[in-house]
Amino acid sequence: MKVAILGGGISGLTLAFYLQKAGIAYDLFEASEALGGNLRTERRDGYLLETGPNSLQLSDELRDLLTDLHLTSEIQDTAAVSANRYILRDGRYHRLPASPPALLTSGFFSLKAKLNLLRELTRPAAPPNAQETLGGFFRRRFGSEIVDYALNPFISGIYAGDPEKLLLHKTFPKLAALEQTHGSVLRGLAKSGGAGGRRKIFSLRGGLQTLVVALTNHLTHRHPSQPVTGLTRDAAGKYQVQTVRGPFSDTSYDIVALALPAYAAVPLLKPLFPEAAAALAAVNYPPMAAVFTAYRRADVTHPLDGFGALHPKVEQPYAAGSIWTSSIFPDRAPADQVLFTTFVGGSQYAAQAGQLADEQKAAVHTELSRFYGIKSDPLWQHQYYWPRAIPQFDANIVAAHVAADSLTAQGIEAVANWRAGVGVPDCVRYARQVAEKITDSAA
Questions:
Q1: Cα atoms found within 13 Å of the Cα of residue 333, Cβ hemisphere only
Q2: In which pathway does it act (predicted)?
Q3: I need a labelling partner for 359 at 20 to 30 A (CA). Which of 32, 63, 278, 320 fits?
């Protein structure tokens, strides 16, 4: 048994790690010199920047991986204030209530919205609908205000998405199941012990690149700077990969693992599986930019006592929101400064994402000045741009998932985030499952 892993992001690295641990032969191919995909940490001018995910949720599978890599001692906890989350409403930031009881007693939502929350307990379940969007589901169960000021900023800030387009059963299937099982989402959460509690949020000393470096150093058959240019299949059903250089043209693989973005897998699949390639080509990746902005602490009047602030679309903001990076991890900026990571773009802000970097930086500074009471110019700014950022689990993803399932029967396993789920914990979990499946089949 031999496996070709195409793509050296967190999915491909995790798959290779567990295959190697199980004694399964593999080759991991990555087009760029650096592995890690979206997990990228940069040090610039005294700042520590995460250009992809800024922090991670500590799932069981991710904890196991860190343990296997001897990285648990490198876990960096967030500051205590990170439990606070803020939402823009009526032009200023409000702390979001942390629980349903707190929500009912706070002034963040109107009386009408609170009554809608209570009425959710008695609203009957609707028949399952595979086409229902997150916006449609939450509006039906909880009302429009919850959609506008809770769901919308969350989906925009975390998934770069639009809740009116993302499908419920592809993004939060557990919520759909709670409605069908208990008749009410809130009643279902109560009977099942809630949402399981908020997972620990963490980073690693030196940034999340530490995880990438540890995985990379562990792997014995990684091949960076080796873009795969073609994929063929012989009469025996085994695959061969063509690369720009390297002695791989005569190597046969029993399984090909696609740890690539959907759009990158399309040209490789098209000659052999044109229908699957067409489905993957339709997966939507909106553009996104991260704009890093530093100020003197004394020039920012807001206390910055939280994880960050998200912006509902109804407020007509420029950016989707900002993470208060130096509040969460104080070592990311000099002690007398504050560092914001502001997200521009995504499905709801595509026009802003297409602007030039200097225009984005100026607009972000203007918005930060307005909402945080900042009277000075930035000490420093930097922009990082993803032309295709996070895959959207909208109507187009359904055909892509069907295609991925059909490819499995042909010896091709899709393990990238468009199949596994967009979060790093999702990718680690799914890659480990695929590694176990391959290992079991080789036994």
A1: 22
A2: Porphyrin-containing compound metabolism; protoheme biosynthesis
A3: 32
CA-nearest of 148, 143, 141 to 89 is 148
pLDDT, tens digit, for every residue of 185-202? Answer: 999 988 876 555 568 999
User: What torsion, rounded to 10 degrees, do the Cα atoms 421, 422, 425, 426 define?
Assistant: 10
pTM of the model as a whole: 0.95
Cα 3 from Cα 325, distance rounded (Å): 39
Query: What is the set of domains in the chain, with CATH numbers?
Result: 2-39+217-284+393-442 (3.50.50.60), 109-192 (1.10.3110.10), 286-386 (3.90.660.20)
pLDDT at position 436 is 98
Task: Give, rounded to a whole angstrom, the gap between the first and last alpha carbons of the chain.
Answer: 10
Helix orientation angle between 10-22 and 60-68, rounded to the nearest 10 degrees: 60
SS3 string, 298-323, reads: HHCCCCCCCCEEECCHHHCCCCCEEE
Give the single-character DSSP code of 161: -
Nearest to 386 by CA among 345, 427, 342: 345
Return the closest-CA partner of residue 384 out of 9, 36, 40, 33.
40
Beta carbons within 10 angstroms of residue 301's beta carbon: 10
> In this structure, are strands 56-57 and 41-44 parallel, antiparallel, or unpaired?
unpaired
The torsion defined by the Cα of 306, 311, 314 and 318, in degrees rounded to 10, comes to 150
Is residue 314 a contact partner of residue 271, using CB atoms and an 8 Å limit?
no
Phi-psi region of 64 (alpha: psi -120 to 50; beta: other; left: phi over 0): alpha
CA distance 166 to 286: 13
Q: φ, ψ for residue 62 (rounded to 5)?
A: -70, -40
